[in-house]
Amino acid sequence: MRTVADYLAEALRNLGVTHVFGIIGKSICPAVLKMVDYGLEFIPGRHESSSGFAASGYALQTGKLGVAFATSGPGGTNLLTAAAHAKANNLPVLFITGHQSIQELGLPQCQDSSSYLADLAEMFRPATLFSKLVERGDHFSTILNHALSIALGPNKGPVHLCLPFDVQTEQLADFRVVIPEPEPLISVSNLNRILPLLQQSSHPLIIAGKGVSRARAHDELLHFAEHFNIPVITSPGGKGAIAWDHPLYHGPCGVGGFPHADELLNQSDLYIVLGSRLSDMTICNLKPANHPAHLIQFDADPTFVGKILNAQTLHITGDLKDNLQFLLGTLTERPVVPRETTTVDYTVPLPDLPHLSLASILEEMSELLPFDHKLFVDDGSHGFHAVQRYKVKKPGSFVFDAYFACMGNAIGMAIGAKTAAPEETIVCITGDGCFMMLGTEINTAVCNNLPVIFIVVNNKQLDMALKGMEKTTGRIDGTLFEVPLDATKFAESLGAVAFRAETRAEFISALQTAQQLNQVTVIELLTDRDEIPPTAHRTVTLN
Question: For residue 312, what are the contacts with CB-CB under 8 A and spacing of at least 6?
Answer without folding.
Answer: 293, 294, 295
